[in-house]
Amino acid sequence: MATDLDENTITAEAFCRLENTPDPRLHEIMKALTKHLHELARELKLTEDEWMKGIQFLTAAGHMSTGSRQELILLSDTLGLSQLVVAQSHSRPKEVSEQTVLGPFHVEGAPQLPSHGAEIARGSVGDPLLVSARVVDADGKPVADAVVDVWHAGADGFYDVQDPAWKLDESRLRGVFHTDEDGRFSYWTILPLYYPIPTDGPVGEMIRATKRHPYRPAHIHYRITHAGFDPLVTHIFVDGDEYLDSDCVFGVRSSCIGHYPKHEAGTAAPDGSKQPKAFYTNDSTFVLEREHAANAAE
Ligand code: BEZ
Ligand code: FE
Questions:
Q1: Pairing state of beta strands 215-216 and 195-196?
Q2: Alpha helices (H) along the chain
Q3: 280 CA distance to ligand 1 centroid (A)?
Q4: How far is Cα of residue 46 from the mean position of the Cα atoms in its chain?
Q5: Span 268-272, average pLDDT
Q6: Mind listing the pLDDT tens digit for each residue in 123-135?
Q7: Which of 69, 71, 74 to mutate for ligand 1's pocket (most ligand atoms within 8 Å of CB)?
Q8: For the whole model, what pTM was predicted?
Q9: What is the pLDDT of residues 6-62, one digit of tens each?
Q10: How far is the CA of 220 from the centre of ligand 2 (A)?
Q11: Residue 25 C-alpha to ligand 2 middle, in angstroms?
Q12: Protein residues near ligand 2, an ion, with CB under 5 A
């Protein structure tokens, strides 16, 4: 133990206080955190006022967070930390689908729906969209009975969970499908549009103070799981969206940009239905990575 520590000698002393940490990974993380925080403060010559502003910012982010609003994850997302961790956690052989951020709007227990024929908009107004998708392995073989969680924002830019009156059993624009024998599932919904991340909290203040825009390009979220495969968390973005190259949370992978062609009113849709309104379609293929391959690459 030591006294008279200055802005340089304090770092080694702080490391000594961590030496009895029994969990080696926790010890490594705490040491690196201490090292980088001290370096940051020295490099910036951080003032006491600035330190206090940082504390107040994190405190406000904590107060803002609830079960359905995670301001600290939003902070991580907007600083690029979430996508960095996703990118370094998956080996990403080029034949398998790329992973992106989960985001704060996924909920467990969304309605279970049939593999084909469901309509998930459930009253959300927008342009009809038929998604037809297939889940395969890296050899192109169908993955039957994969669990596919789907969620996306409405044309107003909001997820159903952002409505204070939202109830799980009245969910819209989300659902859970099981792939059929041929690895396929399909559903009707509405075409998503770009939308802003929530900006009514401290992260919004940070976005405004740094003159960034808060938008995410239009996308549909997918989480696909099946025993024996690495879970896939990804999006299918809408091609042509103006925010594809400046996603506020850094999540766009070019391999995840999908094609959503428009079809005229009165045309037959791929599911055989005749559509009275103009509609869009999207065909997507998701390629899962075998679990042992994912683990071996780590
Ligand atoms: C989303 O796409 O739902 C999302 C992801 C990260 C931050 C905010 C929203
Ligand atoms: Fe989203």
A1: antiparallel
A2: 10-16, 24-44, 48-64, 71-78, 81-89, 202-209, 291-296
A3: 23
A4: 33
A5: 91
A6: 899 999 999 999 9
A7: 74
A8: 0.91
A9: 999 999 999 999 999 999 999 999 999 999 999 999 999 999 999 999 999 999 999
A10: 7
A11: 32
A12: 103
